[in-house]
Input
Amino acid sequence: MIGLASEATAALLGLAGPADETLSRYFRAHRSLGRRERAFVAEAAYAVLRRRRSLEAAARSSEPRALVLCALVRILGYSARSLDSAIAREELAFVAQLRSVSLDNLSPAVRADLPDWLWERLVAEQGEEEAARIAAGLLQPAPLDLRVNIARTTREEALQRLRDDGLQAVPTPHSPAGLRLPGKPAINRHPLFVDGLIEVQDEGSQLLAWLVAPRRGEMIADYCAGAGGKTLALAMLMRASGRVYAMDVSAKRLSALSPRAARARVTSIHPLVLSGENDTRAKRLAGKLDRVLVDAPCSGFGTLRRNPDLKWRHGPDAVRELAAKQQAILRAASRLVKRGGRLVYATCSILREENEAVVDAFVAAHPQFAPESCGDLLSAQKIAMEAGERLRLWPHVHGTDGFFAAAFRRET
Output
């Protein structure tokens, strides 16, 4: 098993693509692996990906097998004795001393398991103490958050059905439709999922739908819809009335939405593949939409609990390019909003360059859009959480992925 975990880890550390896709390919190539074996391989490989820098320091090696052994001992709690029968004799001494290796003299970036540039950026923006807390929060494995389709059932009914089936679900503290599960149960096989009564969605992502706060019968757009998780949440709040345009430049990503909408029994969603920021079909909707959500493509650093490979795949140049792209997307999406309508910009990034800086530039160039308080918008819907004009969510504070959001009302 350690050999298999080492092979999978080597594939992930190659950073040839998203870690989840790489691991899925590995498992497809090893179909004989059982559920427990797959869980072991995934847990060990992701532990290495998440803690790569500190494990390399402790192991004094960057070899995948050494890193897996180090992760098993230092992160996953295996004792040297429990690994005796699974390792070579020459590895016994190496494994025996792993737990006692001190990292106190290493740089803060290594202890935080972040690239130097990202650690330095966080310290500059948040201060060293808060940066350390943010980094620690991002190192924790994320729970499984679900969104209950409250257009068709209640959170209480879904909660009870999950508990009746032995799943220890609890309500999320902020989203009125959220449930949280420990571990990683195969929820996609549960009747609630099959019947479209629950969807997998982080609580922070769910809250964006309540910021948009669509009403029944309106025309709205999810401008960067992707696979449609937030699109479905918006349609749910509209009780499947009105019209929801799911827009994205990727036909492949949008193709995942149709079966999800069918499962949820939603017919008000209209997918629209965009050719870019100046798509002619989108231009026909200029000034006609009541609400537009722009969950812009970003570095994804707020999702490092789930996608730890992103911190090794994206550098400062990529962030700079993303910020320019985000500004262009926000400008294009804003043209769709009618007078009196709402525009919401959001990312799952933790960096000001992709968040406040983008919004500040937009406000300076578009005086017709007046900021709205995210705190007031959530409070109006009886969602109690501390939020000001702009919303910031953090794993170590809110238990969600890292999110940023800003809302605007078009005045003229």
